[in-house]
Amino acid sequence: xxxxxxxxxxxxxxxxxxxxxxxxxxxxxxxxxxxxxxxxxxxxxxxxxxxxxxxxxxxxxxxxxxxxxxxxxxxxxxxxxxxxxxxxxxxxxxxxxxxxxxxxxxxxxxxxxxxxxxxxxxxxxxxxxxxxxxxxxxxxxxxxxxxxxxxxxxxxxxxxxxxxxxxxxxxxxxxxxxxxxxxxxxxxxxxxxxxxxxxxxxxxxxxxxxxxxxxxxxxxxxxxxxxxxxxxxxxxxxxxxxxxxxxxxxxxxxxxxxxxxxxxxxxxxxxxxxxxxxxxxxxxxxxxxxxxxxxxxxxxxxxxxxxxxxxxxxxxxxxxxxxxxxxxxxxxxxxxxxxxxxxxxxxxxxxxxxxxxxxxxxxxxxxxxxxxxxxxxxxxxxxxxxxxxxxxxxxxxxxxxxxxxxxxxxxxxxxxxxxxxxxxxxxxxxxx
Length: 432
Description:
10 helices, 2 domains, 21% helix, Metallo-beta-lactamase, Chain A
């Protein structure tokens, strides 16, 4: 195997045989880095902890020596002596399965991510309910310190070099990592695809990573699909087709109330909806704030949470006007708006655009869909995956041509293959 007799060690703490919760460590002599820092999540689980003790006890997060905030009291967990001089954590993107526990990090450990993700992290957590909260909140900030780096910037951690490179994903500011130690090159895709707005970024990452020693690649799509499976009926092939489909639904339903929801971190998608939809698009105030902070775009909004987001009052639309509208608006049915569900007009149209609940695996999804049918509102699920499709994963692997392939972030990693070298199916906690 390519790693034989190498000083560099890779430990797969979590993110193996599951989707999300990826925490991987790369160590060389007295330096080590980690990526990412999320928690495993199962909406069907009987227990979903809300603190570090519970996450550790339920094995949703691994215990990592000296990596958690020492002020957090923990029973049954104690760190060993720290023999590392240099430590850092890198965050590939904003999705909670990769970022949820960053506030539990030891504040002495630097956290790096692209500037876009840093901005979005602070913005999304303005109400202290996106990430797990800081153990000690001084009322000044809700999110730990984050170092924003420019696209393709190299960060040095001891003798480990990390190039932070943008990739195509459905989360704003997503990146992959190209890691160099004195005796190994490692590419980590984060979550990646080829059918979004930043395909060329993915291709640049592949070029930079070509012939690397080890490729750590996500395999979400092969968890649910086989090679050669066609897209689901009506599923858009790419983000542009998704926008076209949404606009067609709106155009085909004149004289009807039309609402929608989307995943808030997909800033590029909502920007295209805002700019192209035939109706006036109206977001809830929190989402409008996120779009403004992340992309500088000021959208029309309604306000149900009565919080000060610094939005332009001239762009505010009264919620009662939206409730009564059947012609002018295409508006977001956010969490607070759902409390007014029974006020929606029967015979209307709703578009569910990769919003929560995400799908059938979530027990909340089926009753959510049924609630629209009960009110005679047409439910449209319009999705475009943030993850590379099965054959696209193989294309990425073939472009990179790694000596060793280690699939992660997948229920079925064994379905992937490496035509240019070896492959290893790692186990949780394994060091190679």
